[in-house]
């Protein structure tokens, strides 16, 4: 299922060719039947392939999806094939390739964190933040789900996460008072708080926060918090956030984090996808 609507995909095509494809029109090849093939140049987790299939269908193509989003593919493995008029295939070509490359890159990166962390803690969760490029949320969420990860927060409207920046407006309110106020105003919601020290983490746990987000803690500090939480009758979820990547995910998992919160997958280079176009 595509993460974008047909209208959104049509807009992407229009953005790239608002007045037609001058090169194809000038060469007079628009009606020639063409074949297009997408293949992985390296190992990757595929994402945005359903959007690519819809793009090609919108320009008159017949499409065969060979590997769906979320699939792990090897170098050289075909992902999608299609046929259609050259005008349509050439129009959709770069838009589709760019979507697959960018979001397969994100999915592959998110999966790398998950694989590293689960080497030592099979039940750990990797949650990717909302710090994707504005306007790309649907594709970002689809990519991290393809990776086996989960969204950290979909936005501000449905979750409570108290940052130090919020607390700056309430300098006289203690953590326990904040928890009581939030419970009274949003009793059906989980309460999450970001903390900057081991002492704050323990205080927040004692106050009844459901999730303690430890911002930029080193693994040894996460281990200290996890040890303190083990003695609690109602243990909160411990989330390690800030600077999490495949190189340190294993250490954070071993230290006792339940969730790894990361924006790192959104910063990686796109995956490399080979696209071959030929006449039929």
Provide structural commentary.
By secondary structure, the chain is an alpha/beta fold. The chain folds into 2 domains: 6-105 and 269-279, Quinolinate phosphoribosyl transferase, N-terminal domain (Aldehyde Oxidoreductase, domain 3, Alpha-Beta Complex), CATH 3.90.1170; 114-267, Aldolase class I (TIM Barrel, Alpha-Beta Barrel). It has 10 helices and 13 strands. The strands form 3 sheets. The protein has a 7-stranded parallel beta sheet. A 4-stranded antiparallel beta sheet has the order 3-5-1-13, with helices on one face. Strand 11 (237-241), helix 10 and strand 12 form a beta-alpha-beta unit. It starts with 5 loop residues before the first helix and ends with a strand.
Summarize the entry for a quick read.
The chain has helices spanning 6-16, 22-27, 49-58, 86-118, 137-146, 164-167, 175-185, 198-207, 219-229, 246-255; strands at residues 33-40, 44-45, 62-65, 72-73, 78-85, 125-128, 150-151, 160-162, 191-195, 211-215, 237-241, 259-262, 273-279. The protein has 280 residues and is α/β, with parallel strands linked by helices.
Content-based structural category: alpha/beta
Q: Looking across the biggest beta sheet, what order are the strands in? A: 7-6-12-11-10-9-8
What gap, in angstroms, lies between the N and C termini? 29 Å
CATH class group of the largest domain: Alpha Beta
How does the overall form come out from the CA principal axes?
elongated
The succession of helices and strands, N to C, reads HHEEHEEEHEHEEHHEHEHEHEE
Please tell me how large the radius of gyration is: 23 Å
